[in-house]
Amino acid sequence: MLNPMSSLGLIVTSVAVLALAGHAQAQDRGEVVSRFTSIWPHDCTETGDGSAEDQDWVSYRCEGQGGIPVFLFFSDGVRLSLGFGDQAAPFMGYQADRAENWPVEWRGRVINGRFVPHAEIARMKTFTADGDLGGSELVVFGLRATTCVLGNVRGAHANEDARRLAESGRC
To answer: Strand (E) positions, the chain?
Structure first.
């Protein structure tokens, strides 16, 4: 005779395994999923600095997703430029500050077991034209044939709005 507690444990384990298998199959069918990485400079590799030329800049290479690295270029203390991919053309003009607990969200699909990103979402603390801290917003980058800024999002539903923009945006 089966122990009722053993049977219950077997049922719970079976349901958990089936749920995980279903999730993996859903991802491999090409549904959009999120992956997260850090672009905090301490988690990245320094690739250069302007100290030899007595200039105020430093650059980093960070691990991304789907074989797409992220390049950071800081100048004048707070100006941050981001670039994506091996031939990264940096996006200039951000006066930004980052917090180390803000990961980068990559949006993409798992195809044949491999994550293929099509967008990246980064939270930035931005500054106004007067140099005052303007709060944080999400910057959405499209990663299709070319890389572009799809838009900036802020507000109570910023995460959901940024994900919608990432799914619908085209460079």
So the answer is: 29-37, 45-49, 57-65, 68-75, 79-84, 91-97, 104-111, 114-127, 133-143, 147-153
Position 103 pLDDT exceeds 50 = yes
Q: Cβ(149)–Cβ(133) under 8 Å?
A: no
Evaluated on CA atoms 120, 124, 129, 135, the torsion sign reads positive
Kindly report the length of the chain. Answer: 171
Residue 6 pLDDT grade (very low, low, confident, very high; cuts 50, 70, 90):
very low
**Residue closest to 30 by CA, chosen among 116, 135, 142, 150:** 116
Mean pLDDT, rounded, of the chain: 77
Distance CA 96, CA 82 (A): 11
Could you write out the DSSP letters of every residue in 72-96?
Answer: EEEETTTEEEEEESTT---EEEEEE
- Euclidean distance between CA atoms 106 and 8, whole angstroms: 39
Cβ 140 vs Cβ 151: under 8 Å: yes
- Residues 67-84: tens digit of each pLDDT: 899 888 888 766 778 888
